[in-house]
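Students often ask what a holo structure prediction actually looks like on paper. The answer is less mysterious than it sounds. You provide the chain, you provide the ligand, and the output is a string of discrete structure tokens encoding the 3D arrangement of the protein together with DQA.
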Amino acid sequence: MHFLILNGPNLNLLGTREPEVYGDTTLEELMQLCAEWAGVLGHTTTALQSNHEGELIDQLHAARGVVDAIVFNPGALTHTSYALHDAIASIDIPTVEVHISNVKEREEWRAESRIAPVCVHTIYGRGTEGYRDAIAHLHYRAVSPPVSISYGPEPHQVGDLRIPNGEGPHPLAVVVHGGFWRHQWTRDTIEALAVDLTNRGFASWNLEYSRSGLSRCDASDDISLAVATRTLLAHDYPIDIGRTVLIGHSAGAHLALEAAAATPVAKVVSLAGVTNLVRADSEGLGRGATTSFLDGAEPGPHCPTELLPIGVPVLLVHGTDDESVPVSYSDEFERDALARGDSVQYLRLDGVNHSQIIDPNHSSWVKVATLLEESLLSE
Ligand code: DQA
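The corresponding structure tokens follow.
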């Protein structure tokens, strides 16, 4: 694939422009990184920047027939330009909107995007690494196109379903991303793993859910609803829901464990999981993320440790070098779950950090995937 990385007004000043908001990476350095990120996935890039709306429109038009996917940061034109909206709508090239800063938590006018409705995804508030995530998302949706399946009426009550080759019925992996329940972290962050599961023979359903920071967060209800309604998938797709594994990363592991305690599944996997909400709340894990997520509610009723026994075989996976969720969360959960009679398997991985655990190319994931294949792939 050939990517266009397009940047709008004032982004030529990256590195010196409000570094407390946009960081100190220059545009040139960032475009070099984009070439490297795309290169790792086997793709090439062209980087362009303009301070002029008309020129950006011309560049979008010129991309037709030349470019397979676009990563676009239109700067402040995001918030005003219907002309850019129409240009993207006209060219039929999948485009991801990217912002370095958290546009939903700055001035009110920045929360509005004119181009979002015609983009395949919007990424913001992840610093310059948002460009890396945009490239990865465009890659994965091209190599393994998902079908979006809603599990409720809200726009975020949706999951990307991928069905493996072969006749089936296939076991189902329900995947729940992490990000401390905060709205800037979405399911693209765990898409590589969902695609890998599908390549291994699992139907994967990568869920979105309500997140905190914008409005009330009902993530627990969302994941429980999705898990309960997964039976509907089996009407239309060759899926054996009797072989459902729920896989959550970080805060998504909390949600997976909570949902598994309510709706039995074949297995639940906690990857670097926030397994104890009472502890996370009291020690301000993730810079107060648990407290924001709870929004005044008591942690106990949502806390996997308090919900023990889960009643479903649990696979705990945690790296000793986890910088976001200390490995002691899984150490303690293993001890408590065994004491309450749950069946627990624990992969405690030396030297592995929080994000390596969801990198399908990392040795830790290969170990997890092999265990899942052994227990769920053969009937
Ligand atoms: C920006 C956010 C816009 O609101 C702002 O006008 C920019 C940069 C970002 O990358 O965070 O120029 O798109």
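The chain has a mean pLDDT of 96.
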